[in-house]
Specification:
- This protein is an alpha/beta fold.
- It is built from 18 helices and 21 strands.
- The strands form 4 sheets. It has an 8-stranded parallel beta barrel with strand order 1-2-3-12-13-14-15-16, surrounded by 7 helices.
- The relative contact order is 0.11.
Length: 484
Amino acid sequence: MPKLDPRDRKVKILATTGPACSDSEMLRRLFLAGADAFRVNMSHGEHEVHARTIANIRALEKEFHRPIAILADLQGPKLRVGTFKDGRATIPHGATFIFDRQGEPGDATRVELPHPEIFHVVEEGQRLLVNDGKIRLRVKSVSNGQITCKAEVGGVISDRKGVNVPDAEIPIPALTDKDRRDLSFAMDHGVDWIGLSFVQRPDDIAEARKLMGPRGALCAKIEKPQAVRRLGEIIELADGIMVARGDLGVELEPQEVPPLQKKIVNATRLTGKPVIVATQMLESMIESPAPTRAEVSDVANAVYDGADVVMLSAETAAGDWPEEAVMMMDSIARQVEKDEGYKSRVRMLDTPPDPTLADALAHACMTIADTVKINAIAVFTSSGSSARRVARERPAVPVMVMTPSVQVARRVALLWGGHPVATKDIGSFEEMIAKGKRMALRHGFAEEGTRIAMLAGVPFGQAGATNLVHVVTVQGDELENYKG
């Protein structure tokens, strides 16, 4: 088995796959550089290509005996304008521009908008944004199958450019026919997380959950103002949250996104569910081997805020420096976590335990790690719930998540501080102590004299029975036995 040092970095790195890392060797290099999980973007590429990528990632698991999370990110509905006579047109600043239901190619005064749902919900004074917000239009009137707008910011508009409707909830489901096919493919190939795009309402979560059944975990992407307004309900129904800053930055004013990012991160952290900060984190590294100072600060702030995961998109999927991007993100995160003020910063959010025994014991694990020197917290769990409770407290030491379920082990690979270990279930107190010590030694979290806190439930193997914390010390003879 290849030697792989334990990652004492708490925040996780999610790297997006794509043409720049399509072969198994580059995926291996990204994993060794620090990638803890991989995102497969279903907006691009064929199922055959994605199947090879998933197989290559699973081969890494076998090589290094470390569970790796795979997130399949669904495309979601895409609202687009029609075509133009010359392929494009220029809308002058301040000009009147019309969206209509006619099928003819457009010009500088009008274009088809082949989405009848939009005509039923937009109102005077609302905004329509085209081409990632580069063109900004204000609705003047809606009547007879046309939307008349004034171009507050004009520009070049071309065939099939995207349209954002930030001020209205559009009555279309978050899942298209393509998304349903992609979701079925992802579940059949054992993907661990599904990223759900275009979430506007809690019902969108329920629909995806119904199609997934008991397989996989669901990550809701917060990318629309409508989702922000119902954030609490969406967090409650989802298994995790992604702050999709790219689309949020289109539909909101840019200055609104940073405080909103903190709000989403904090609200998700309170539940113990993983939260991912995504989009444009080291974007200059698509073409440059080094990031800008502003990008470094952006990543660092997400780590200081206590996000579970920071994500790389085009930097690894299509950039010129995918390995260097992962190494840079790893380096930034490690530097932040070495900061003397990091522990207090990451705990600025008050996460009081719920009035349950499991929450009280998870909080106790954090207190033990603060009070006496221990090297790790070993959590025995069948569902991952206990591990989420411990990670929510942001303890000062790594959390070894030991579970008999490979699927649970992979899912918790996105959890702050979590080090997943897929291992057989325990049946007794003595077996818990022996296995906890053995796994700590095997995974590099223990040496002679090391103390480890263990969290489990009696009777063993029963979900939801967390009722035990025990601190053990690794003895010299146990270390020798392990080496032997």
